[in-house]
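Continuing the series of single-chain predictions for the mutant panel. This is the parent chain; the variants come on the following pages.
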Amino acid sequence: SCLCGSAPCLLCGCCPSTKNSTISRLLFTFFLFLGTLVSIIMIIPGVEKELHKLPGFCEGSGSVLGVQGQLDCGSFLGHKAVYRMGFSMATFFCLFATLMVCVRSSRDPRAALQNGFWFFKFLVLVGITVGAFYIPDGAFTPVWFYFGVVGSFLFILIQLVLLIDFAHSWSQQWLRRAGEGNAKGWYAALCVVTFLLYAASIAALALLYVYYTKPEGCTEGKVLISINLLLCLAVSVVSILPRVQ
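Parent structure:
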C-alpha cells in the first residue's frame, strides 16, 4: 500500500511523523491540483491546436468529441477536453467518497483504501481520464456543461463564505491585539492590509473590463462586471454600518 515499492517507504520514514488522514488529505489535494493543472494546459492555445491531430477529435458525429467538420475545431476543442478532465476528476472523487461511506476512523478496514494504495489510485485516475476522452460527444457536453454551471456556482458560494469568515477572524484577532497593547501599530497594519486588498480588487475589476469587454460591444460582460462592482461597494458600506457592527 506504500505507493509501489520499498523506496517510497524509506523516503516516508525520513519525513516528520503525522497522521495517516493528514497525509491522505495532502495527496488527494495533490491529485486535485494535478487535474486542474492538466485542465489549464488543455486550453493553452498551442496545446489546444494540437488536440485536433488526435484520431477522431475533429471528425464527424461519430468521433470522440463529435465536432462537426464545417466548424473550426481548434477554437473550442480545449474546452471540451477540460469538460472531460473535470468529469474524470469528479468521477474519481465520487468513487472514493462512496467507498468511504460510514467510515469514521483509520481503524476501519476500509480506511486502508483511503490512506494507501496511492500508485494504484493514480492509475485509476489516469484510466478514468483516458476513458472520458472516448465518451461519444452527443448530449454529453451540453449536459455536463449544466453540471459545471451548478457545481461552480455552489463552489464559488462556499468559497465566498469561507473567505468572509477568514477575513472577519483576521480582523477580530488584530483588533483584539490592538486592545492589548501597541494599538497604533495594529490599527496601521489593519489599514494597510485593507488598502492593499481593495487595491487588488480594483485592479482585478480593471483587468476584467480590459480583457472581457470591448468599446463597441460585449454588453453582457460590461453589465455583469458593473453589477459585481456595485455589489462590492454596497457590501463595503453595509458592513461598516453601526447596526451591522
